[in-house]
């Protein structure tokens, strides 16, 4: 069961088709396993369909918009349709064996695979990151926004535990040191608007070499 979700504004942008393909892929992977967010997107899709049918320009006051966003962000469980968004996109992109990908050792327990070239024309960097079971990533923050969905295993940091298909967005104000839980290697898919920034006493010396 997922416990960490994209916010209402990002789901609204997804429903409207305004997200770039890497971000949309992260949302689709989360929706495949999260009935709560599927229900929220179905509501947004239905609202969009009605507005298109009416073919009218609708002006929404700030107070009404705030109420809509409050309802979308409500954590109360909602009735949801069965999953209808298969993970075929992930298999088509990466195959079925995530552990068998051509990983490149980066630092300590961390391996990476940059797949940005599979999204031609996109400005963001798209990377897979693997943290070996029980392993620790270097403490770091971010120069931009990092959007991540957990594909396999789980990790913990100062914000909590993130299990398979959980969704997390981190920015320059977030410093953390992810630790993979025992069992499976933790594999994540991340979209970065800018490279991360190592903040450890010694690892920060490697920042000039990190793309």
Automatic annotation (TrEMBL):
InterPro entries: Anti-sigma_ChrR (IPR012807), Anti_sigma_zinc_sf (IPR041916), ChrR-like_cupin_dom (IPR025979), RmlC-like_jellyroll (IPR014710), RmlC_Cupin_sf (IPR011051). This is Anti-ECFsigma factor, ChrR. Residues 122-189 form the ChrR-like cupin domain. It comes from the Bacteria. Pfam families: Cupin_7 (PF12973). NCBIfam families: anti_sig_ChrR. It comes from Marinobacter daqiaonensis.
